[in-house]
Design a protein that fits this description.
Blueprint (H helix, E strand, L loop, with lengths): L3 E6 L3 H5 L1 H6 L2 E7 L13 E3 L5 H4 L8 E4 L6 H8 L8 H8 L1 H11 L6 E4 L2 H11 L3 E4 L10 E4 L15 E5 L5 E9 L5 E3 L3 E6 L2 E7 L6 H18 L3 E12 L2 E10 L9 H4 L4 H9 L13 E8 L11 H7 L4 E4 L9 E9 L2 H15 L5
Parallel strand pairs: 1-2, 1-4, 2-3
Antiparallel strand pairs: 5-8, 6-7, 6-8, 9-10, 9-11, 9-13, 11-12, 12-15, 13-14, 15-17, 16-17
Length: 380
């Protein structure tokens, strides 16, 4: 019988990738899937089916568990609040609010005096037009809740472009379109008792609103900016009461030749920007997350090579399984570490990722990209 029991809301690839770490530490994972066949249910025996917004259905995985955590943010706040009165819930409902509600996050960052783009809560097209006048010619409009992987986000030049967004919403978030030179992510893990460990700042490269490539550590970033990003992420974790893994997505911009960071969004769970840690660090984000939510001592982070490159594997139109091309990858890209999620193939769907570590950034990036091209059937 496992000594620790961790209940996880969600049964996608993030829950699935917690499995090796849980096995190594003799932790029993229990997951709540919304439907049979989600990819974590293929490797985790203790699975229940239910809605993350239902107290009674989440309760299926909580009896006797040491902690309740989650692998996505689409959870009813009342659900976490309910179980927070009965057991350890990490992170708490009060912390998760800031990952679920972008307006709440902007207000909190303003209160804390942390760097972020100019923003405004807009209640009609006139508010949007005024913000455009102040911060145009282009601005970013976001739905305060519900958006992810590029959904619920639109760059506009005129208020009329989002006129239909008001049909079921009373407020939208307008943000300055930052002229950034790079997108980065600061990743850390924090225990309920307060101790934290950070991984190096990484560069994230997006394609069609979805993370495509991660480079660890972020190249061409000054030490001052690396320290600032680390300090900002640690402040956010402490002041918002975040526990477990926290990813703080940021923009890097330059003014008068000097770099600075601006906070974009948060994720309070293992994150795509941290998948490189599975092969490029002495401890993965998944093991550190389990340690953190159980309030166990965290392992000091060390990188295993000067650089690690992660490239996501997205589904293609042909519906071919990436696993059918593993032999070709192993032959042509011997340094590529392939991680497949066991998902049905759909165009644009995240099916896995490839990590390559080494000394020469240009060479390992080329090998990671070639491996993904082979797995997607774009190259033989």
């Amino acid at each position: 019988m496992a000594f620790y029991k961790v209940a996880v809301i969600g049964a996608g690839q993030l829950a699935r990738m917690m499995t090796p770490a849980a096995e190594a530490l003799d932790i029993e994972l229990r997951v709540l899937a919304q439907s049979q066949g989600e990819c974590a249910t293929k490797v985790i025996c203790n699975t229940a089916i239910g809605s993350p917004k239902s107290v009674s259905e989440v309760a299926q995985i909580c009896d006797g568990a040491d902690v309740l955590t989650f692998e996505h943010e689409h959870i009813g706040s009342d659900v976490l609040s309910h179980f927070g009165k009965k057991m350890s819930v990490q992170p708490s409902a009060s912390a998760l609010l800031y990952a679920q509600d972008k307006l709440a996050l902007r207000r909190k960052l303003t209160e804390l005096g942390l760097p972020q783009p100019a923003w405004k809560a807009c209640h009609n097209n006139e508010d949007v037009a005024q913000f455009l006048s102040d911060h145009g010619p282009e601005i970013v409009i976001k739905t305060p809740t519900g958006g992810y992987d590029g959904k619920g986000v639109k760059v506009i030049r005129a208020a009329e472009e989002i006129a239909d967004w008001w049909q079921d919403r009373e407020v939208l978030l307008a943000e300055e379109k930052v002229p950034f030179t790079m997108e980065v992510a600061a990743l850390l893990a924090r225990r309920p008792s307060g101790a934290s460990e950070s991984w190096p700042l990484v560069q994230t490269i997006q394609a069609n609103g979805v993370c495509h490539t991660v480079i660890a550590p972020a190249p061409r970033i000054t030490e001052a900016v690396q320290e600032e990003a680390k300090k900002v992420s640690q402040t956010i974790a402490k002041e918002l009461g975040v526990t477990g893994v926290l990813a703080v997505e940021m923009f890097v911009s330059e003014e008068n030749g000097k770099q600075r960071v601006l906070v974009n969004e948060l994720a309070m769970r293992p994150h795509n920007s941290g998948h490189w840690t599975m092969d490029g660090a002495n401890i993965s984000q998944f093991e550190q997350h389990l340690r953190a939510v159980l309030d166990l001592p965290l392992q000091p982070v060390k990188t295993l090579a000067p650089f690690t490159v992660m490239v996501n594997i997205l589904g293609t139109e042909d519906g071919q399984e990436p696993a059918s091309r593993l032999a070709a990858v192993a032959s042509k890209c011997p340094n590529a570490k392939v991680h497949l999620y066991g998902k049905d193939v759909k165009p644009g769907r995240k099916l896995g990722h490839v990590n390559v570590i080494g000394n020469d950034l240009k060479m390992i990036k080329a090998e990671a990209e070639e491996a993904v091209e082979i797995l997607r059937g774009e190259k033989r």
